[in-house]
Amino acid sequence: MPRALGEVAERLRRSTVLVRLLGANVSRVSAGGTGVIATSDGRIVTNAHVARGSQLSVELWDGRELPATLLTRDARRDLATLQVAAGDLPAATFGDSNTLRVGELVIAIGNPMGFIGALTTGVVHALGNLPGFGAQSWVLADVRLAPGNSGGPLADAHGRVIGINTMIVHGLGAAVPGNAVTAFLHRGAAGYSLGVTVQPAPFGNRRIGLLVLEVEPDSPAAKAPLWVGDLLIGAGGKPFRSTDDLYQALDKAGGLIHLEFLRGDRTATREVAIRLTPAVAEAA
After folding, report:
1. Exposed, middle or buried: residue 249 (CB in 10 Å: 0-12, 13-18, 19+)?
2. Cα 259 to Cα 227: distance, rounded to the nearest angstrom
3. CA end-to-end span of the chain, whole Å?
4. Is 126 helix (H, G, I), strand (E, B) or coil?
5. Does 243 map to a domain?
6. Beta-sheet pairing, 277-278 with 192-193
7. Distance from the Cα of residue 35 to its chain's centroid
8. Which residues pair with 109 in a beta bridge?
9. Do both 217 and 259 map to the same domain?
10. What residues are labeled active site?
11. 3-class secondary structure, 281
12. Same domain, yes or no, for 79 and 123?
């Protein structure tokens, strides 16, 4: 079993890349994430919060570093696709995440804290949605993740990718299920774009706010303007109770959304009407 696992891990490493965010004010050490080679002609899937800049590069398993172009970014599912000018790459094999069972062995590969190709193993802990994150399904596994693992593969014992590692929740790794990833690769982003990265935050009685972590330049949110640190609390007069509520509001907005939010000392509710744009390279 150890030898077989080592062979599986080595194949998986060759399909895993280091994603770097470039720029004059970006630390090369701190701006790393992970990606998975989805097709042999250079398409790579990673997290949207990893591919959050206009200047990106990808380092392959053989040490080659190539510029990467952002193709699609969907913050709703925290997924993005990149393209590099290379061929005959070792693409990963995607498995059926619907067949996963609690207790099943899983493998995670990533680039945490500068350690390229680091491996960790564990078992599936739970499957389903997470409180505060709406109806979207997740794969929770007791794998040891750290900053830099985001966007990397969660694979079964055969090396088939059954999830994209995204975040740590109560000490467990949370991954976007593989079937949602393959659907995204075929469909791309959908709906309208606001241009923000948000995180649920407790607010009021049995409610949540959505804390704005990032505002994309020249996006509808930037033009409103929304600021990093704003707390989105509702849309169209309806309070938010999960991140899904924002995305459902975007879907129903018809190109114009009325947001309620708090800013600064957060004692007064503010409102803003934002003209949206269709999601092509952004959907948030």
Report:
1. buried
2. 13
3. 43
4. strand
5. yes
6. antiparallel
7. 10
8. 119
9. yes
10. 49, 78, 150
11. coil
12. no
β-strand partners of 235: 238, 259
Q: What does the DSSP assignment read for 176-224?
A: EEHHHHHHHHHH---SEE--EEEEEEEETTTEEEEEEEEE-TTSHHHHT
What percent of the chain clears pLDDT 70, i.e. is strictly above it? Answer: 89
Q: Name 120's bridge partners.
A: 108
Closest-CA residue to 153 (of 130, 175, 180): 175
Q: Which of 20, 54, 83 is the last residue of a domain?
A: 83
Q: For residue 43, give its domain range.
A: 2-83
Q: What is the pTM of this model?
A: 0.72
Do 228 and 213 touch, CB atoms closer than 8 A? yes
**Could you check whether the bond before residue 153 is cis, i.e. omega within 30 degrees of 0?**
no
Of 282, 280, 281, 262, nearest to 271 by C-alpha is 262
User: What's the chain's average pLDDT?
Assistant: 86
pLDDT digits (tens, 9 = 90+) for 211-222: 998 888 888 999
pLDDT in tens, 229-264: 999 999 988 888 777 788 778 877 777 899 999 998
Q: For residue 88, is it within any domain?
A: no
Residue type, 243: T
Q: How many folded domains does the chain comprise?
A: 3
Looking at the fold, whether 62 and 16 belong to one and the same domain comes out as yes
